[in-house]
Specification:
The structure holds two protein chains of two kinds.
Chain A lengths: L8 E3 L4 E4 L4 E2 L3 E4 L2 E4 L3 E6 L2 E6 L11 E10 L2 E5 L6 E4 L21 E10 L2 E5 L6 E3 L3 E4 L5 H5 L4 H10 L2 E4 L4 E5 L2 H16 L6 H13 L1
Parallel strand pairs in A: 3-7, 10-12
Antiparallel strand pairs in A: 1-6, 2-5, 4-5, 6-7, 8-9, 8-11, 9-10, 11-12, 11-13, 14-16, 15-16
Helix pairs in contact in A: 2-3, 2-4, 3-4
Chain B lengths: L17 E5 L7 E7 L2 E12 L12 E8 L14 H15 L10 E11 L4 H15 L8 E9 L2 E4 L3 H4 L7 E9 L5 E4 L7 H26 L6
Helix pairs in contact in B: 1-2
Chain lengths: 224, 233
């Protein structure tokens, strides 16, 4: 039986990860006879007896409770249609907006093309419901939006926000990372540029060891 | 004169030099390049994403939409750009050869877009395209049972040959030339696609299938290598 602290192996669909009765199939794996077979491209991870695959690529898969960044792509009588990437469109109803909004002129609050930080409140068949009822949600004004691989978001944030705070502090910018891979950066022009480059570097070097030092060096190096 | 030697001095069951790479199109969700000698195909995968118009949506599953495109400079005589009868056919064939291994039930009502472009053509373009598309799907993190590998088997005069070139395709002496593209799943070696252009007795078709099995294993090895980040030539 494999021990826990093992280097994670890159597997491809159809590949036999391990063979034997002691392992159980987890996420994105299946059991055929005695073999556990990968169904998705990613890193094979052993936690106890369970074998699962940690995805490294692909579109955003919405989950309840995710905080995401999206762009308003339509307005109707009862709310806003918001594009958050991923397989389905999302809808933010008027009733989920915490402040008073004139029903006859809801474009006043958010118009087509505006960018919002929203929370996924529920997922139904073929549609996602959003909410603004939480701290820090709402319209994002000014700044810029960049798109990164949604599976690299945990790296960009770092342990308890260490990486993102490092970038925020040394570039003096305000950054919001949506779990769908959209990142909003606002600050001075030079700072925004630097933060954008730093985030792209984190995504590129996501698997290399000593990532924090590398980013520190990169951010320090640009100052001079 | 009987056909004893291949024009590029390959053995009868030898593939052309293969090149493969993933992640070549940064804006796509998944992408790959695959080439057999002078035949170069690139594939990009986008999705699963919302599908419009709505009447194309399937309530119980996702659909695959595949576009095959031969770029104007890919052949000696400039190819007229845009869709043609041939490109529609090959797009559809690719779609069907891949839909058997992809888990379409995961995101119902959505679409997975595959775009294949042929940068250089010297026969077997659909096979190179399918190989690239299978790799691009895996790279896009799409849940699938296994990969598919594709190879063209030819009967030139009375010899069964693997991975035929344009020159061999145009062979007219003796029994002439027959081209059979095969697509097989990587582990179970089941056929997901088979076409036949020419004449072929049933017995020889079985022989061709056996050599397709062997050749597809080789193609699969290259696909695996490329997906694991190793450089394939």
């Amino acid at each position: 039986m494999p021990t826990q602290k093992q280097e994670r192996k890159l597997v491809i669909p159809g590949e036999v990860i391990v063979s034997g009765d002691e392992c159980l199939p987890g996420d994105f794996t299946r059991k055929e006879g005695k073999a556990i077979i990968a169904s998705r491209y990613g890193l094979a991870d052993f936690s106890g007896r369970v074998v699962k695959i940690i995805p490294v690529s692909g579109v955003f898969e919405p989950r309840r409770g995710n905080t995401v960044i999206g762009r308003v792509d339509d307005i109707n009588f009862s709310g806003w249609n918001i594009d958050i990437g991923g397989p389905y469109g999302a809808f933010l109803p008027l009733s989920e907006c915490p402040r008073f909004i004139d029903r006859n002129n809801i474009a006043e609050f958010a118009n087509i093309g505006d960018v919002m930080n929203v929370k996924i409140w529920g997922i139904k068949k073929g549609g996602i419901d959003l909410s603004l009822r939480s701290r820090g949600l709402g319209k994002l004004e000014g700044g810029r939006i960049i798109r990164i691989n949604p599976h690299k978001v945990p790296r960009v944030i770092g342990k308890e926000g260490s990486m993102i705070n490092l970038i925020k502090n040394s570039t003096k910018t305000d950054i919001t990372v949506g779990q769908n891979g959209y990142v909003w950066i606002k600050g001075e022009l030079a700072g925004e540029d630097k933060a954008e480059k730093a985030i792209k570097l984190v995504v590129e070097e996501a698997t290399s060891p000593g990532l924090t030092e590398k980013i520190e060096k990169f951010l320090g190096g640009l100052k001079k | 004169m009987p056909y004893t030697k291949r024009p590029d001095k390959r053995k009868m069951d030898e593939l052309r030099p293969v090149k493969a790479k993933i992640g070549i199109i940064p804006n796509a969700d998944g992408s790959a390049m695959f080439s057999f000698g002078d035949t170069v195909a690139i594939a990009a995968v986008y999705g699963p994403k919302p599908l419009h118009p709505q009447h194309l949506q399937k309530p119980d599953r996702a659909i695959i939409r595949c576009v095959y495109n031969m770029l104007p400079f890919s052949v000696t005589e400039r190819a007229r750009p845009g869709p043609s009868r041939r490109s529609k056919e090959i797009g559809l064939i690719t779609e069907k050869s891949l839909s058997g291994v992809v888990d379409l039930k995961r995101f119902p009502g959505t679409v997975i877009d595959i775009e294949i472009m042929i940068l250089q053509a010297n026969a077997s373009t659909r096979c190179a395209g399918i190989n690239a598309a299978a790799m691009a799907l895996a790279h896009a993190g799409i849940v699938m049972k296994e990969l598919v590998s594709s190879v063209s088997i030819g009967k030139i005069d009375d010899k069964i040959v693997v991975d035929i070139t344009k020159e061999e395709e145009d062979y007219v002496e003796g029994e002439g030339s027959t081209d059979i593209p095969f697509t097989l799943t990587s582990n179970s070696q089941k056929i997901t696609h088979l076409q036949l252009d020419g004449k072929m007795p049933t017995k020889r078709l079985k022989e061709a299938f056996e050599s397709a099995k062997k050749a597809c294993v080789k193609v699969y090895e290259f696909q695996v290598k490329a997906l694991k980040g190793e450089e394939v030539k």
